[in-house]
UniProtKB/TrEMBL annotation:
Pfam families: CN_hydrolase
Keyword field: Hydrolase
Domain CN hydrolase: 1-250
Gene3D superfamilies: Carbon-nitrogen hydrolase
Name this polypeptide is given: Carbon-nitrogen hydrolase family protein
Species whose genome carries this gene: Shewanella litorisediminis
PROSITE patterns named in the record: CN_HYDROLASE, UPF0012
GO molecular function (one): hydrolase activity
Phylogenetic classification of the source organism: Bacteria, Pseudomonadati, Pseudomonadota, Gammaproteobacteria, Alteromonadales
CDD domains, sorted: nit
Superkingdom of origin: Bacteria
Length: 280
């Protein structure tokens, strides 16, 4: 089974973003008869639009979702469709990741839980994702032919408890669509992905945005990576747009978990070491 991450340089131009993804899928190197898991980055079809723009694209007919479902079906790939804006019950917008099967049917979706309200010393000064998006509340693990697929988005990677929860919920592979800033990406991206892979003993698929977006108003780090449960980099693309591919070795997952059974050694699952009892 093969996984392919697409590093994108998305903008506010939905049609251009869609055309790029389609043209890349046309030239995706594939092994005949082998199932293919494709992961797109955060904001793959709409990057940097203001709330009104995100709202406009998240209407009831969900055009972005339909376009991505059509791609999955047309190319016959399982698709972790980065993020698209999706309307919440109270008229706000979630940053939502869909998982489609190779017929374009939705297997599940996840809404970004941790929003990036952070000051970054990169000239942009502040990011206030919660001005545009509302946070999700649900942890999601989807059953796929590739294994149990946990979902997390971008800033979520900084919250180890979430990855621990995904592992406890059965995750074997964790897809992480992202759009890390250039500054924080350079400092932390690779280390965070590897730490989460090692701790959770999962494959981690970090599909990234790269480069300058929307005439330079935003810059992202790139370096899409496939990390195995031992923390090794199996494949990566530092810069530019294009595919990062690898074949996942599920035996490796079993080997790592059997040889080092951290999940069953974990004493913090039991109450006796929790903070309320500290200092006794
Ligand atoms: O706002 C948009 O248009 C799209 N969303 C994003 O780019 C999101 C929120 S601003 N980016 C991140 O979460 C970066 C996290 C990050 O860089 C870190 O954790 O260091």
């Amino acid at each position: 089974m093969q996984v392919s991450l697409l590093q994108c340089q998305s903008s506010r131009d939905v049609q251009a973003n869609l055309a790029f993804i389609e043209s890349q899928l046309e030239r995706l190197p594939r092994v005949a008869g082998e199932p293919q898991l494709v992961v797109l980055p955060e904001c793959c079809l709409l990057f940097g639009g203001h709330e009104s723009e995100q709202l406009a694209w998240s209407g009831e007919d969900e055009p972005l979702k339909q376009a991505l479902a059509a791609l999955a079906a047309h190319f016959g790939v399982y698709l972790v469709a980065g993020t698209v804006p999706a309307r919440s019950g109270d008229g706000r917008v979630y940053s939502r990741c869909y998982v489609f099967d190779d017929a374009g049917t939705v297997l599940g979706h996840y809404e970004k839980i941790h929003l990036f309200d952070v000051d970054v010393a990169d000239g942009t000064k502040t990011y206030r994702e919660s001005d545009t998006f509302c946070p999700g509340d649900n942890l999601v693990v989807v059953d796929t032919p590739f294994g149990k697929l946990g979902l997390a988005i971008c800033y979520d990677v900084r919250f180890p408890d979430m990855f621990r929860a995904l592992r406890l919920a059965g995750a074997e592979i964790i897809a992480l669509p992202a759009a890390f800033t250039r500054v924080t990406g350079e400092a932390h991206w690779e280390i965070l992905l590897k730490a989460r892979a090692i701790e959770s003993q999962c494959f981690v698929l970090g599909a990234a945005q790269w480069g300058a977006h929307n005439t330079g108003s935003r810059e992202t780090w790139g370096q899409s990576m496939i990390i195995d449960p031992w923390g090794r980099t199996v494949a990566e693309l530092a810069q530019g747009t294009g595919w990062v591919q690898a074949r996942l070795d599920r035996d490796e997952l079993a080997r790592v978990r059997t040889a080092m059974p951290v999940a069953s050694h974990d004493r913090f699952k039991a109450p006796e070491l929790l903070p309320a009892k500290a200092g006794k």
